[in-house]
Design brief:
about 25% helix, alpha+beta, five-stranded antiparallel beta sheet, Peptide Deformylase, globular
Length: about 200
């Protein structure tokens, strides 16, 4: 019988868990299966295309990506990447606008390699290796950064950071209109209807 997932809150970028180095996973047990199910439904509910463990308060090395987010009738479901490692990346970099479920309403251009090779374990703990480029490569790099305690805002220029200051202050002070439950920097649950 498949495990039923439940929507869980997403932690905002100021909570300390987003700066943690996540730890390797060594076994696929029922607890991990529940985590994957919860992360999948949480990501879908928030209209995300990627979600790292520490964005929902877990500290293990796993993220989910949904390469077909928003596509009607897509057959590929969100899938988990456990203990991912980038084993190669292209010299060519591309600039593309990124956003993050932990940093609502902030979108900025970030430079990243165009293509990567990634080694990871699937949810059955089988080793996989894939070569990807474009948006999928970018999502993987973004989510892998999360597992290492890095946010896309860390990669922004000084000018970008200065221009984003007001938006980041609104997130810090819980003064943004939310579409999903969020945990603030102090661990408080902020619900969409509770934000003015």
């Amino acid at each position: 019988m498949p495990i039923k997932g439940k929507i869980i809150p997403i932690y905002n970028c100021f909570h300390p868990v987003l700066r943690e180095q996540c730890k390797d996973i060594f076994e696929a047990d029922e607890k991990l299966a529940q985590q994957i199910a919860d992360m999948a439904i949480t990501m879908t509910n928030a209209d995300g295309i990627g979600l790292a463990a520490n964005q929902v308060g877990f500290t293990n090395r796993i993220f989910l990506i949904d390469i077909n987010a928003g596509k009607e009738g897509a057959e590929q479901k969100p899938f988990a990447m456990i203990n991912p490692v980038i084993t190669a990346s292209s010299e060519e970099e591309v600039t593309f606008q990124e956003g993050c479920l932990s940093i609502p309403y902030l979108y900025e251009n970030v430079d990243r390699p165009e293509a990567i090779e990634v080694r990871f374990l699937d949810n059955q703990m089988n080793e996989q290796k894939i070569q990807v480029d474009g948006i999928i490569a970018r999502v993987i790099m973004h989510e892998l950064d999360h597992l290492n305690g890095i946010l896309f805002t860390d990669k922004m220029t000084s000018l970008q950071k200065a221009m984003a200051k007001n938006k980041l202050n609104k997130i810090l002070k819980n003064k943004i209109s939310l579409k999903y439950d969020m945990i603030d920097k102090d661990g408080n649950l902020i619900k969409p209807e509770s934000v003015a």
